[in-house]
Amino acid sequence: MRIAAFPGGGEGTPFTNNVHNxxxxxxxxxxxxxxxxFSDWNVETMIAQFQEALAQGYDGMAVMGHPGDEAMDxxxxxxxxxxxxxxxxxxxxxxxFAAHQxxxxxxxxxxxxxxxxxxxxxxxxxxGAGAGEKAFVWGLLAEAGRGERTRGIIDGFEDAGLEVxxxxxxxxxxxxxxxxxxxxxxxxxxxxxxxxxxxxxxxxTAAAQTYATAAGLGPDDVYFAGFDxxxxxxxxxESGYLDLVIDQQPFxxxxxxxxxxxxxxxxxxxxxxxxxAGSFVDRSNVEFVAPLADREIR
Length: 298
Fold this sequence. Notes:
Elements lengths: L1 E7 L7 H15 L2 E6 L4 H12 L5 E5 L4 H13 L3 E5 L4 H7 L6 E3 L2 H16 L6 E6 L7 H13 L3 E6 L2 H5 L5 H10 L3 E6 L2 H5 L1 H7 L8 E5 L3 H9 L4 E4 L2 H18 L5 E3 L3 E3 L4 H9 L4
Parallel strand pairs: 1-2, 1-3, 3-4, 4-5, 5-11, 6-7, 6-8, 8-9, 9-10
Antiparallel strand pairs: 10-12
């Protein structure tokens, strides 16, 4: 069996590595021949790589849903017409799921809007921020599908009465979190009364300590929350600069789509919907997951 698998970002980068490790572990356990397509989180690249992979005659494809239903659904329809099973990772494609679940299109990842809202509500509850205080949300609202998580964060804060300061993550920062330092320091300088910061991107969350120190913020000056684990994220939590992350468990976002494709190809099972974003990590439980984060499993 031949499978094309999309880990998401750049090879060797945070979060992407965890997904990639999940793909590789499933390939080792289950035996398919898997080819990987890295996209630096660029939606145009994802679409182009989907088209490229579709021409290679794979049995199945595990693809990121970031481009959204409007862009992806015609390609997914074409794939199934050609006998290529597609399953979706990390960002939901609800219309594609409805159309092709019976043929094996599943979803593994966070329910994006609900995950964003969960994080906002948890940050408000734990920080004690009240109505009228400011929350800085650095996200990807402009992206179809993927932007729903950012929308959930904003709605969660606004419903709690907080004033949201929003900044879109630009392409350079999306590809390399260090490029976002001037943006972060500029927002903090213009809004010195921020109570909460949320970075809606795993690589940006991992850079929490870098951003905070560049902006002259100490560990307790703002309540900093974000997404996903990794060694740098663990360090930021342990140092006090990062207060809370919601863990999407990206290793599972690699392992389970390969399993989904194999189960459908061999047994004809329909697509499974699996929510991997059920846990929060902070200083109270980071010690347990830290060794697993070093191994890029958690």
